[in-house]
Amino acid sequence: MTRVVFLLVPQLHLLDLAGPAQVFSSADTFGLGYEAVYVAEHEEVPTAQGVALRAGTQWPALTPDDLIVVPGWRAPALRGTGVLTRATLDRLVAHHAAGGTVASVCAGADALGRAGLLDGRRCTTHHDVQDELARRYPRAHVVRDVLFVTDGRVITSAGIASGIDLALHLVAVRHGAAAAARVAREMVVYARRNGDDRQHSAMLRHRAHLSDAVHQAQDLIDARYTSTVRLADLAAAVGLGERTLTRRFTAATGLTPLRYQQVLRVEHAEHLIGQGATVEAAARSAGFQDARMLRRLRGRAEARQG
After folding, report:
1. Could you give all domains of the chain from N- to C-terminal order, each with its CATH number?
2. 130-141: per-residue pLDDT in tens?
3. Which residue pairs from 135-139 have beta carbons closer than 8 angstroms and sit at least 24 positions apart in sequence?
């Protein structure tokens, strides 16, 4: 069970909190084991949207597997907003020093900066306060125009809805891209990753549609893409004819079911090669009979990119 502690700061934005909280709640529904805990310096926490929240004031015992998230707050300027005591900031530092992960959404990055966790690290925040964050913490490297940045178990995200992307990324890192895609589908959102990191998984890239039958077919392919997946079996599983499934799958994803499986295999092989595996070993692990097909598909991909 991973405990996710949300540190609630006065005037927080509801979506900064609710987006990531929903991701981890959905992940827990699927049996991935998450428990949300809400703490604040005072029991009643006013929000930027006018709804008051209540939180505990006692911090739970944390392990390195647990996560602290600092949602953002209304901050036309960072200075003078999001007030936290030194004791609270020290809790962020102590959790990170013990091997835990600390994350922020939007202006929440300023709390991490005050704690000293941005020093020497890459980070990001909402575009309206990026310049001020860079001035306040000159030892940090503020990355612009990305959804989130990960650096040394410190994860910062941009404004408001990007907290969903950050949380989906954490689910993908801990449980795999298929799990993150399943959570994104449950939330009816497009599962994005930031432009700073290479997107390794088509499991997320090709989920930006609302076709339930196609999502079901993708779930089946995602679960066993290194094995033989027959179109007839996919069609029967989702209750469609083979031609109808192929037509809907292509319209939704831009790929046929076979091509989608090949993309998953190639990306898996690319990852293994990047980790030092030979092309032959990577091809076998990805489900190819030999390396020739892998080389051919990689060549086609490179030609399209060129």
Report:
1. 2-178 (3.40.50.880), 209-305 (1.10.10.60)
2. 999 999 999 999
3. 136/78, 136/79, 136/110, 137/113
Instruction: State pLDDT tens for residues 250-279.
Output: 999 999 999 999 999 998 888 788 768 899
User: What are the residues whose beta carbons fall under 8 Å from the beta carbon of 264, sequence distance 6 or more?
Assistant: 201, 202, 203, 221, 222, 225
DSSP H helical segments within the chain, as ranges?
Answer: 14-29, 86-97, 108-115, 130-136, 162-175, 177-187, 202-205, 212-223, 231-238, 242-253, 257-274, 279-286, 291-305
How many degrees, rounded to 5, is the angle at CA 281 between CA 277 and CA 285? 105
Which residues lie across from 91 on neighbouring strands? none
Tokens standing for residue 25:
């709640």
φ, ψ (nearest 5 deg) of residue 298: -65, -40
Residue whose token pair is 């991909």? 301
- What is the maximal distance between C-alpha atoms in the chain? 63
pLDDT tens per residue across span 102-154: 999 999 999 999 999 999 999 999 989 999 999 999 999 999 878 889 998 99
Tokens at residue 293, please? 């097909």
Asked if residue 125 lies in contact with residue 142, where contact means CB atoms within 8 angstroms, the answer is yes
> Counting beta carbons within 10 angstroms of the beta carbon of residue 162, is it exposed (0 to 12), middle (13 to 18) or buried (19 or more)?
buried
CA distance 60 to 277: 42
Q: Output the CA–CA distances (angstroms, integers) from residue 273 to 266, 283, 289, in the order listed.
A: 10, 9, 17
Residue 285, both tokens: 């692990």
Alpha-carbon span 190 to 87, nearest angstrom: 38
Give the torsion through C-alpha atoms of 14, 15, 18, 19, to 10 deg.
Answer: -170
Type of residue found at 177? A
Q: Tokens 């998450």 sit at which residue?
A: 34
